[in-house]
Fold:
Amino acid sequence: MGKQKIIFRDLGQMNYQTAWDLQETLLKENVRRKSTPDGSASTEHYLLFVEHPPVYTLGKSGNKEHVLLSNEELETNQIEFFHTNRGGDITFHGPDQLVGYPILDLEKYYTDIGKYLRNLEEVMILTMAEYGIKGERSAGETGVWIDPDLPGRERKICAIGVRCSRWVTMHGFAFNVNTDLSYFNHIIPCGIVNKQVTSLQQELGRKLEMQEVKGKVKRNFEQVFESTLISEVFL
Structure:
């Protein structure tokens, strides 16, 4: 079987609700196509890149108490909040963070959510290696970490949370590039206490070009998922 083709769209800066609505539209269209006679043969894969204005998002089984600000404080600090339908707990999205939303029909790859999550992690691990940083997994905790087995030194650099309907995915990963990490002081990230959050900028001591990082993530996504990205301008 040849490589799967994935339509790639860089959405630039977009508010969270608009991007969520777009994901839902693409997912629902793929689910609708699965009910037609030719089924999954007609579905299309997408990979969306986006940067959001400051927003906290809570997974469907997450705990709102992991947000340490009141609704009034969120409004004062101009931070949005959404209770989403993805897995995972609380996380932050903001400028200079690379958020990726794959809308993939996993029936064209494999029907294994665990493998899908590990593959998303692998994309980030390969990307970090290009910067000389060793990204690792932490047992029982989805996402990518640095020094996960050194108590007091564990720091998370990429959060991952997904939803899957009829084996079509949405939501995805949030990779801290030049992210303002002070926003994480107001939540218990991913519901995990006493562990830090970091970014490529913090680890390397310099600001990175987002386009450069995006290029590396795209190439590694193609490699890990054995697919070809087809760029599509989003207007």
Residues 16-34 form the longest helix (19 residues). DSSP finds five helices and twelve strands in the chain. The CA atoms of residues 49 and 100 lie 5 Å apart. The radius of gyration is 17 Å.
